[in-house]
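Suppose you are handed only two things: the residues of a chain and a line of SMILES describing zinc ion. What would the bound structure be? This form records exactly that question and the answer produced for it, so the two can be stored side by side and reused later without any lookup.

QUESTION INPUTS
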Amino acid sequence: MMAKALYMDDAYLKEFEATITSVKDGRYIVLDKTAFYPNGGGQPHDTGTLLRDGETFRVVFTGKFSGDISHEVDKAGLKQGDKVQGIIDWDRRYALMRYHTAAHILSGVFNKEAGALITGNQLDIAKGRIDFSLEEFDREKMAAYFEMAQAIAEKDLPIKVYYMDREEALHIPEMVKLAGVLPPAVKQLRIVDIEGFDRQADGGTHVRSTREIGKIVFTKAENKGKNNRRVYYTLRTA
Ligand SMILES: [Zn+2]
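ANSWER OUTPUT
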């Protein structure tokens, strides 16, 4: 049975109780449910701790392997059937949430203003990077798009997460701006909706309001060859 991914419906869940369903090589732990986000979709994995009877096991990596969310801990000792308390490193996760929502705003602006398709993205706790398929390489225009993204962030738009039938979702034009990356072949898609601005099928964790992002700062643009543009940004809080 696949573990329940608690972060899908509550990105602000920091602690949870769970039962270990399997242990591989002593250090790879699968739980019946988890708030730990596994590496994927440009968003890095969560770190944190699993506590069992007061003993701490550090989660150094979380990944998805054949459908299972696996928590790599720093030492052996956990056993199948153990009850644990999971605690995610919130500062790290929250930074990644802010960067992720900012990436959606930037993608939305670049797509609406220049018809750019997103070909890749990578978030980090102190910087973000997005790759676009875009004919022009014009730093001034890019800077203007960043200004627009900043104006969206300041609008305090709510971000809602809900599910939608795949067929219905794929008929919404703004939903298909990921070049060559079709959402997985499932009936229901998880939609991240920046209300009144942008909707996207997405498995990541996001803030509740664009206001939480802070200031979106354009740091660098690179010309990666034919139609391939890369922009970097950082976020600043007041
Ligand atoms: Zn996303």
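WHAT STANDS OUT: Residues 41, 100, 104, 202, 204 surround zinc ion (CB under 6 Å). The longest helix spans residues 90-114.
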